[in-house]
Design a protein that fits this description.
The protein is an alpha/beta fold. Helix content is 38%, strand content 20%.
């Protein structure tokens, strides 16, 4: 497995694979990889001849007061995980490699990016769409793999691929959790021991909502209220949002009679965590 840092070095390799008729899978990440990322890589390896993992902390998707400078980084650890999972290349560029100093072009999206995380992170999805578009153009994958934990991101990328006619299949992969139910996230490393225990309130509260829906409750407001009420039993938790939306267009629903995304963002101390589930 190779670690490549420049587009100039990567492109000839990709073109060589394409000339041989090989399929290419891309797993876009911001590094500090965990078993959730590994599950994406393993699936990509199973479904493609070659796999590229991008390992890039993308500055354009962080707001002014967010954690760009403190976001965890460990390329050696990432490389070991990628090699164990069967990836062929890690693309690990510097920001200067990905963005020109006088850049003035961004990929923006309306509607799907306005709610949920977009309310409190207004520049986030423009940064995500821009960097993913660039990665698609650089790697030209046949398939790209994203985790369901970032459910809004997955919906946004699927819509972007459709709207901009990328010839790429977007593959969504299930959330991977710790044994106690906490969704794996690179940001979990920010949590103290006390906060780590408190963070379990996300999955516990969503599980309560899921059980209500499975028992026949279709009133979205009642399910949402129950989830929030349960969240508020944890003193260290500050709810950013709990929303129930159509899983495709992310519009709020009143009645749970179509596949819905039940999503939450919660601050545990200073750390913002997200989690979700999708109804049948």
């Amino acid at each position: 497995m190779k670690i490549i840092t420049t587009i100039e070095e990567l492109r000839p390799i990709i073109k060589g694979w394409k000339r041989e008729g090989l399929t290419v899978g891309l797993v876009p990440t911001m590094g500090y990889l965990h078993d959730g990322h590994k599950s994406l890589i393993v699936k990509a390896v199973a479904e493609n001849d070659k796999v590229v993992v991008s390992d890039f902390v993308n500055p354009t998707q962080f707001g002014a007061n967010e954690d760009l400078s403190s976001y965890p980084r460990d390329i050696e650890r990432d490389a070991a995980l990628c090699e164990a999972a069967g990836a062929d290349i890690i693309f690990h560029p510097e920001p200067e490699e990905m963005y020109y100093p006088d850049k003035c072009t961004f990929v923006d999206m309306d509607k799907l990016t306005k709610g949920l995380c977009g309310k409190t992170r207004p520049v986030h999805f423009s940064g995500v769409c821009t960097v993913v578009s660039k990665l698609f153009n650089i790697v030209t994958p046949d398939r790209a793999y994203f985790g369901q934990k970032d459910a809004q991101q997955l919906a946004v990328i699927k819509r972007m691929v459709r709207d901009l006619n990328f010839d790429i299949t977007v593959v969504g992969c299930p959330i991977v959790r710790e044994a106690d139910g906490l969704a794996l996230s690179s940001r979990n490393t920010y949590l103290s021991d006390e906060e780590r225990k408190a963070a379990l309130i996300l999955n516990k509260s969503l599980t309560l909502g899921k059980e209500m829906i499975e028992a026949g409750e279709k009133d979205a407001a009642k399910v949402r209220e129950a989830i929030i009420k349960n969240m508020e039993t944890e003193p260290l938790a500050k709810v950013d949002y709990v929303e129930i939306v159509d899983n495709e267009n992310l519009e709020p629903v009143q009645t749970i009679d179509v596949p819905c995304l039940v999503a939450t963002a919660v601050y545990i101390g200073k750390t913002r965590l997200i989690d979700n589930f999708v109804t049948a």
